Structures are given as C-alpha cells and as structure tokens.
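Marked as duplicate of an earlier ticket. Keeping the data here for the record.
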Amino acid sequence: MKASQTVKTLKKFGLSENEIAVYLECLKEEDLTPYRISRLTKIPRTTVYDVLMDLSLKGLVELQQSDGFTKQQTLVKAKNPSALRNVLRQKRKDLLSLEIDIIDILPQLKGDYHEKQANADFKFYPGIEGARKMLYNEEIAEIDLPVYIWTDRMPVDIFGYEKLDPIISRWTRLMEKHKRKSKEIIFLGDWTRHVLSYQLERDPDFLKTREFRYPDYPDTNIAQQIIIKGNHVGMACVHEEEVWGLHITSPALAHSLTTIFNAQWMSSNPLTPEIIRSWGPSEYLKAQIKKGQIKKKKY
C-alpha cells in the first residue's frame, strides 16, 4: 500500500514511470552506475542515461565521474528526499511570479478575444407594447426549463382586462404544455392581494401552474416583473413614467439572478389558495359580472 502511494504521489509530483523506478533505486544504494540501474530496473541503458539527466535537472540526483569522462564511469547519488519539498517551494514561487506576469498581459489578450465577440444579447422594447411583449413572453414560455419570476402584478389599467387576462391564460396553457410550475416571489400589499384574489376567482386553475411565496418585508415592492428561464431574462416595467420591456440573453446574468432568487425563495412564505381565499371574494369581479363585462358562466 505504501509503495503504491509513493508511486502515485511521485506521479503527481511530475515524474514519469521510468524516472520513479530509477529514483527509488538510487535512494536505496549509493554510487550506482547507469549499468547497475539498468540491471535493477530492467530499463535499457540508453534510456537510463536520459532519465538520469532529467532527474539531475530536477534536482533529485547528482551525477559524478568516478574516473575519466565516459558514461560507463558515471556514478549516481540520490539527494536527500527533502529535495522534493525544495523543488515544490521553488515551483510555487515560479508559478506565483508567472501568475503576476499572466495577469499583466490578460487585459490585452481578453481585449483581442472579446473585441468583436457578441456573447450576450439585449433587446429593448419601449412603451406599452414593449412592456406587454415581455410581461409574459411566449418565446420564453416555450423554453422547456424551470422558470423563476419576481412579480408585482401589473396594474390592469395599463393594458386593459381584454388584453391582460388572455396573456395570463396563454402563459398558463404554455406552462401546462411543458408540465411545469413557475416559482413566483410576490410582495404582498393591497394591490397584489386584490389581483391575486381576482385572478384565482376568475380562473380556478390560476395556481395550477404557479407557486407563489411572499417575503416578510413590510412596505417593500419591486417596480418590474422579472422572468428568468434558462439563459433568458425578461423584464417588464410599468412604473410611473417608465414603461418598457427588456429581453436579455446572458448565461452570467441569468445564473446570478437565479442564485439570488433561490436564496430569497428559501426564506419566503408559501402563499396557498386558502390564504388567498381568506382575504374574501373579489368585489371588483362581482362588479364586472354585474355590469356584463364578464359572463358569470365562464367562471
């Protein structure tokens, strides 16, 4: 077991199998000759000479001449095995120095590499149509991957129920198609409670493809709806004077936002249909039905 571990460690150190065999024999005896090492290791003498030269350059053995200058008279003596640590220390110093040099030239190399390479895509859609395009983007919904959403439930007066409700319903059907359930973080307030009550009463399947959680942060909200799916990030903003949509294809941004989302998701509270129904029926939906804007039989 120890012998096997020794060989494995010396390989990690950077020695070849021949170098390990020669080095271990040199540790056992003093003043070995290449001929003797060849006999002990079964490695051809011509190869042994090359191996000894490499071990000498690595600082692990010393080559001495016993008499004359012929290879046959060369004597080999292993250095103290502590030389292995000395070699590692020197390699560490050399690598640190090399790292500093590499960092110095990286900006130039990366500048050449990234100069014309488009490795992310940003599409900005201004105005109400842009916000509606990205509110529940069907292009993103068609991607069969988990979906994460920060939502503030857009004000209906921006789009109108005739356009907003079908958008929400189409998203539900697309999610059902892929048998997926979106994870959505929502900040509860009077408006979001109103919207959730309305949507659940309007469509009993509203939560079939959605899982909501809400953080315990009072008086907190977001000004955009943010959808993350795969490498895609969709944003829709309808806040005071700002109305726009944004579609970003960026693995780095999507990964970062997903990490933040999951951290917040773990610390948030599940929002169940029972909790939503406990807020009472939607008075607005009742008024719509009464006015004939929505036919009661559909709901």
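See parent ticket for discussion. The radius of gyration is 35 Å.
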